[in-house]
Amino acid sequence: MTAPAICLNPPFRAEHIGSLKRPEILLRTRKAYSEGRCTLSTLRAAEDAAIQTAIQMQRDVGIKGITDGEFRRHIFFEGVFDQLEGMKYIPKDVPAFKESKTTGVPSYVCDAKIRRVKPFYISQFEDLKRLTRSDEHKNLKITMCAPEWFHLRHGPYSYDTSVYQNDEEYFADIIRAYREEIADLYAAGCRNIQIDAPLLAFFCDQKMLQGMEERGIDHVALFDLYCRVYDTCLKDHPADMTLGIHLCRGNFKGGRHWSEGGYDRIAIKLFREIAATTYYLEYDTERAGTFEPLRWLPRNKSVVLGLMEDKEELIARVHRAAEIIANGEEPRSLEEALNQICISPQCGFASHAEGNPVTEEDVVRKLALVVETAKAVWPDA
């Protein structure tokens, strides 16, 4: 088999999902700021220092799609709904929506027309550019909250019906906001966006689907709606922009997961009805199912396999995935199929600021293994 084509644009052969373990000094400084014991400028300086260290770590291990580790966020989905006009913050001691019990976590619901009156992630991208070399700028990755995030959480209580009469009206303004943000990120030089969408994996989980049915929710129609939302958000994007969707089963405090089940139920629509260019898919445990759904991957898209085995097992699984893609709905050569694959850890290392049960040294080892494995499979890694 001849060598795959050289991978010059994201996603790269060795990827990571975005969030990195926060150093203790950053956590202490953020706590001091929240308690009024330091200034915003002190916090920003601590963030800059931590991000510079994280950038150098990514360079040292060989990661090309550099992120800021989400060090300027408390949790991965910050940045969109907390910035939109028309969204109301619901603190943890207030019911999240009508006729419900207190959830114990903050949230957002819509109580007025939604408008993007300020950018979501432009400042984070500009800051990342400022801390990196000019030759790295086109590869810098921005991670972004999913457009359906609070809708799936709150269902019919996501918005005031005096503001929007139905889901289509509600999402039309959200779509407009996402398209504006993506266009502005592109104008700022961003060419690599990853939308974090763990809730889409709920549609892989039989227990989740059964729960929806018991509440009278048509989960087939709901998933179709979300596919249309993503497709409209992403379609007509510039050809030199990578737009990826990241699905996982959850990786919250302590590594807790939310859902299980393979991609079989959603693969066709996910791969063929959404104008994404790549998919970051969890594949490290049995809860994610088999590689069989990859048979629906089109020729013009790529997949980043989230794996966590030892090197030899990783290599074997990459080749198994390539065989399934090659013999899939659109048959292709094994070389072509292998060229559509990249690898990464299963998820980020700190979806929440407190982070997963790993050390900073663990993060380096895991990323180094991903890079080492990628180089063993692809000469261009």
Tell me what you see in this structure:
- This protein has 381 residues and is α/β, with parallel strands linked by helices.
- 36% of the residues lie in helices and 12% in strands.
- It has eleven helices and eight strands.
- The protein has helices at residues 24-34, 40-61, 122-130, 149-154, 167-187, 206-214, 219-234, 267-272, 311-326, 334-338, 360-377; strands spanning 85-90, 107-115, 142-145, 192-196, 242-247, 278-282, 302-306, 341-344.
- The strands form two sheets. The chain has a six-stranded parallel sheet. Strands 1-2 form a two-stranded antiparallel ribbon.
- The chain is globular and about 55 Å long.
- The chain starts with 23 loop residues before the first helix and ends with a helix.
- GO terms for molecular function: 5-methyltetrahydropteroyltriglutamate-homocysteine S-methyltransferase activity; zinc ion binding.
Question: Helical stretch count?
Answer: 11
What is the spatial order of strands in the main beta sheet?
3-4-5-6-7-8
Q: What is the gyration radius calculated from CA atoms? A: 20 Å
Any guess at the CATH architecture?
Answer: Alpha-Beta Barrel
What spatial form do the alpha-carbon principal axes imply? globular
* Helical residues, percent: 25-40%
Q: In percent terms, what proportion of residues is strand?
A: 5-15%
What structural category arises from helix and sheet content?
Answer: alpha/beta
CATH class: Alpha Beta
- Main β-sheet, in a few words? 6 strands, parallel
CATH fold field value:
TIM Barrel
The total tally of domains equals: 1
Task: Give me the strand/helix succession.
Answer: HHEEHEHHEHHEHEEHHEH
Low-confidence stretches: 96-100
InterPro entries: Met_Synth_C/arc (IPR002629), UROD/MetE-like_sf (IPR038071)
GO molecular function: 5-methyltetrahydropteroyltriglutamate-homocysteine S-methyltransferase activity; zinc ion binding
Protein name: Cobalamin-independent methionine synthase MetE C-terminal/archaeal domain-containing protein
Pfam families: Meth_synt_2
